[in-house]
Amino acid sequence: QVQLVESGGGLVQAGGSLRLSCTASGRTISDARMGWFRRAPGKEREFVAHLLGSGGRTYYDDSVKGRFTISGDNAKNTVYLQMNSLKPEDTAVYYCAVGEVGGSYDYWGQGTQVTVSS
After folding, report:
1. 76-91 pLDDT tens trace
2. Backbone angles phi, psi at 89, to 5 degrees
3. Cα(3)–Cα(93) distance, rounded to whole angstroms?
4. Which residues contact 113 (CB under 8 A, 6 or more apart)?
5. What contacts 93, CB < 8 A, 6 or more positions away?
6. What is the CA angle 86-38-115, rounded to 5?
7. Which of 117, 110, 97, 94 is nearest to 16 (CA)?
8. Sign of the torsion formed by the C-alpha atoms of 13, 112, 71 and 74
9. Most distant CA pair in the chain: distance in Å?
10. What tens digit of pLDDT does each residue of 13-70 get?
């Protein structure tokens, strides 16, 4: 049974930073595709960033490029999303997901709320 548990969300002022964590059990992240997504109130879920396997290649949505950094710790089986220079439009529930490299995302976490005040 694969489980993903996110943490690190909260309330922060615009311009501030947060670091989200996603710890996986039942699946090794070192050879997986790990992604972060978000869903803002009244909007569809959207892609934020992903990390590809042990090679560590990353990809970001243009809206977060240069502000967010995705990284992984294989020893802790955890993926992180460092979020800097936060904006009110970053307010959303953030979800992590895991899947095969080149495949779809198979498992999702429960989400963690990020609220950025202006």
Report:
1. 999 999 999 999 999 9
2. -75, -5
3. 18
4. 9, 10, 93, 94
5. 38, 39, 111, 112, 113, 114
6. 40
7. 117
8. positive
9. 40
10. 999 999 999 999 999 999 899 999 999 999 999 999 999 986 689 999 999 999 999 9
Count, residues in the chain = 118
Amino acid type, 3: Q
* Amino acid letter, 55: G
Per the listing, tokens 């955890």 go with 78
Structure tokens at 35: 């992604």
Q: Which residues have CB under 8 Å from 18's CB, separation 6+?
A: 8, 9, 10, 12, 83, 86, 114
